[in-house]
Structure formats: structure tokens, C-alpha cells
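Protocol step 4 of 6: structure prediction from sequence.
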Amino acid sequence: MLAALRRLADFSGARVVEIGCGDGRLTLGVAEQAASVFASDPDEEAVARARGALGELLVAAGAVATVRTLRLPTLHDVEAAGLGDEVEDIYRRLGGRQAGPRFQLGGWDMEIDGIAVELDEDRHFNRYRRQTLDSPLHERLTFPLALYTRVCERHEAECLRAGSWGKRWSQPRAAVEFGEAGEEGRLDGAGSPRWKQRAFYDFVKDK
């Protein structure tokens, strides 16, 4: 299959989006040539296998998988870096209801050569995440912002199929931060507090 794809297209230096990456077997082959690859899949177990395979590929290429020692950003870090106002602005735009933003971030997916790596599945690409990308703070980042923006705009339907019910739509902590949920699967009106929380956490990790 990979050989057939390579006959159809030259991936050298290309920016590639793969929807339905499964366990990443094609993703990794394309990544050997592409400048960047965004890959997503609604099957979380498949994404987990892809993460493991990616780590193995990077190590085989000479990268060093490091012990997870990189600290996650805290509210103190945000304020010390002079980013407090902009982070609070995004929090409010997403509907944050508390006196100020609070967050409890999960760990990085992996660390390679001392660099934190995040691998996002379908539920990260939606209008809320798109909203965070308008922050001027993203001008400091090196990832392809325009491509990431298009993925958020074009693949919200996949996000809905992957997470428009139950705890994927709302959780008690998310509801405290961003308000009660609207009807499951409908993003107009109150929408999904869990999606808003995830978008905000992704934004903070970007920094």
C-alpha cells in the first residue's frame, strides 16, 4: 500500500494530513519523506499503537527517548512569562466562568531528545480549538499554524462522531469551569464543556 501511495504522490517535503491513520503503519512510511504529518483516527486504541510505533521509529532514526522529566506548565509559569492576560482572554472566549483560569494538565505523550511531543486524536480538532489559534501567542510557534487551522475547520464532523456523548461531551470539572453542557452533539448554544476544556488545555500546552 505504501509503495502504491508513493507512486501516486511525491511526499518529499510535503505537509500531509491523514484521516483514519489506524495504527500508523502508513503514517510512519509517509513521515520518512514528508516535512510534517497530521494523523488522526477515532479509534483511541489504534492511536495508542501509532504513538508507540512513532517512538520506535524516532529512536531507530537516532533520536533518544528520554525519561519524562519536562515539567508541564503551571499557572505560575504562565504569569511569570508575562502570558497571563492572553491566557485569561482565551479562557473567557471559551466561556470560562471562574475568577481566573485553572488547569490540571495531563502528561506529554512522549519526550524525544528532551522535546515534548503531543499526538492529538480526532477530538482535538473543532471550533473551540480553532478559536484558540487566533491568539497572537501562536506567532511564536514553529508548527504550521495555517494547516492546523484548516484541520480544525474541516474535520469537526469527525470530532463529533468521536466524542459527542457522555464523559467525552461533559464532565463535572469541565462544567464547573465552562458551564453546563448543551444537547449532546450540538455545538450551537452551550455546546460541550469538555471540548472547551480540552481546547484550553491544548492552548496552554502550546505555550
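Step 5 (inspection) to follow. The chain has a mean pLDDT of 83.
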